[in-house]
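Chapter summary example: a protein plus pyridoxal-5'-phosphate.
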Amino acid sequence: MTNTFPIEKFRSVRTPFYYYDSALLRQTLDEVKKEAAQYPNFVVHYAVKANANLKILKIIAAAGLGADCVSGGEIEAAMRAGFRHDSIVYAGVGKADWEINTALDADIFCFNVESVPELEVINELAKAKGKIAQVCFRINPEVGAHTHANITTGLAENKFGIAMSDMVPVIERAKELENVKFIGLHFHIGSQILKMDDFEMLCLRINELQEILKTKNIEVENINVGGGLGINYDDPEADPIPNFKDYFKTFADGLHLTPGQKVHFELGRSIVGQMGSLITKVLYIKQGVNKKFCIVDAGMSDLIRPALYDATHKIENLTSDAAPVVYDIVGPICESSDVFAKDTAIAGSKRGDLLAIRSAGAYGEIMASQYNCRPLPQGLITEDLK
Ligand SMILES: *Cc1c(COP(=O)(O)O)cnc(C)c1O
């Protein structure tokens, strides 16, 4: 059992719900800012897609981070939460016209462009508004991140980005167009990356590409290295705040920058992952043939990561001190993948107990659906339960 949860308050809230420890979020933001500030040319954006709960966005915007968006809706959410318009970067392989127009109207910092046809459409829509859109090109660096196949994005056979061999021609194409301005390169190799070697590889690749551009006299003001720093799902208590110091140092040491060049980061999971838990109630303990099932009221509609990515989350019973029992902890949804944990020991549980599914602050609430006509889970921060 942990004593950092306001368990008595939890009892009066309809389960399942997301609980966000706002103190941990603020500490995490302080740490990110402190470590990034070691390098005056580093700029940190928060990847809105990890958690777009308005209360969370407002705390992150107030801390002064920029926003990394992947849709028009995220740009609107970021603006509503108070992110500065000129701190917004916008990536995505399939930007629709209304989304590009939303970004142009908001005067965002930069579009991270993923193809030539997209570049041409941005140019056309910017022209119609009498604007010049700043663009970075998302280059596919063919660096394989050691993570689940569904969340690697930097390999060659991937829908994301522009091939390295096309980099120079697309930049030259941008220079011919009047309503776009080339300002840099963008990369993103994947998510839940814990080995700094992957980021070191990315730095080496960026250095190679910069050498090529130098020979062509192409100036690059901004290098955006994306996000992807992972968190400790097995033991959130051991690493409540990710190692931002080593992460930033990896880029500071690895990148060969030109004077005045800015480095942008797009961190999602590492900022919001550990502050969140999905709180769920035990409905039934069912004895199977060879197993015991702990059936809870949360399902894959509330937290899809285990079903979608084989993700594991630490689960604890907040209201029982009984000796550990091994269960399959499962939800009520009519899908056999609706399983939060297999053969997992937690304190002996009974109907009505509250469980915390930990490290669920990123890609949790935002990915919830109404599958099976279930209501969406609420997202509550510490202040909501005072
Ligand atoms: C998802 C995404 C991020 C954030 O990734 P995390 O692993 O949550 O840090 C950053 N940039 C882009 C382009 C993304 O698609």
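Key point: Residues 47, 49-50, 68, 70, 91, 188, 191, 226-229, 266-270, 362 surround pyridoxal-5'-phosphate (CB under 6 Å).
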